[in-house]
Amino acid sequence: MVLLLKFIKFRPHLPLLQHSFNWASSSPTHLQTFRINISPALLGVQIKAATRPISSSASKMVKAIRIHELGGPEVLKWEDVEIGEPKDGEIKVKNKAIGLNFIDVYYRKGVYKASTMPFTPGMEAVGVVIAVGPGLTGRKVGDLVAYVLSPMGAYAEEQILPAEKVIPVPPSIDPVIAAAIMLKGMTAQFLVRQCFKVEEGHTVLVHAAAGGVGSLLCQWANALGATVIGTVSSEDKAVQAKEDGCQHVILYKHEDFVARVNEITSGKGVEVVYDSVGKDTFEGSLACLKVCGYMVSFGQASGTPDPVPLSALAPKSLFLTRPSLFQYILTRDELLHTASEVFTNVAAGVLKPRLNHTYPLSQAAQAHSDLEARKTSGSIVLIPDGS
What we know:
The protein is an alpha/beta fold. It has 8 helices and 19 strands. The strands form 5 sheets. Strands 7, 8, 9, 10, 11, 18 and 19 form a 7-stranded mixed β-sheet that branches. Strands 14-13-12-15-16-17 form a 6-stranded parallel β-sheet, sandwiched between helices. The protein starts with a strand and ends with a strand.
């Protein structure tokens, strides 16, 4: 039996107890908990049944989306979860806007493995600091901050986050806009400025050009002086892609994109392909590259591509990479530099985030369903209910 001992008066004539200690807190406002095996012969002991520690900063319940099993959008459940107080190096944030990204779908389906089950999905949010851990400097209550990728758990009204992982949001940027662009904008940044440096005179192919990342890739590559070719699924999305800087738009459901790219480039091919679609476009993307071209496969919305033998890259000496933003923001300096470039380009008008869809957080399942059905374009943001 596990008991919470409020006060124990030991009697010297009684046998010693076998015990192990598990201190809940050193604060005088907390009771101290022991895991203890008590002999029935022990008398004169005041005991109190197990309860939570009494504290001025006791845990509370907030709403969040939880996943208990992998599957379709229906596995996203709206539930109460417990949240405590920030510890050393941590802050508590009340989320104002949460970005929905395709990586959330990958975790929901099990393409990427969550470290625990059940878990709260979500890799991006913007919110206000409502509490800071003991002795923390550099962050204060009331700060507007954003975070991306780690730790997972953005689909919640409130979160505990490592202070070193959050990014100050400039006051000129609305929280909802920030949530629409942080992860997608930072992804676009490392793709066009680091993974493959797009320069004036390059020709690039962007699949899913009207998507959240795709639209930003088109805008950024166009601003850098590249000729941008984009693939989309509908006429409406073609209009958007042109507005975002695509000089050539291919309706892939009605046209052979490989033949069209060959026609547009007079048979030369493109310097780089940015492919977030995966299985359905992978082989065609390789065929679109010029000699020594770069195949940047950064997503798999249609499924994981079939294995490709290295010998398939040899005829044109192609480069193939499957990058992830994680590895490009490992240090705090890298994180802040990447975010700064995004904010700077938003302020300069180079990047114009398309916030085309918002959903209440409780309706995350519907948002996932619409995203997978390609009913959406641009960015999708979840707003905590009641905000």
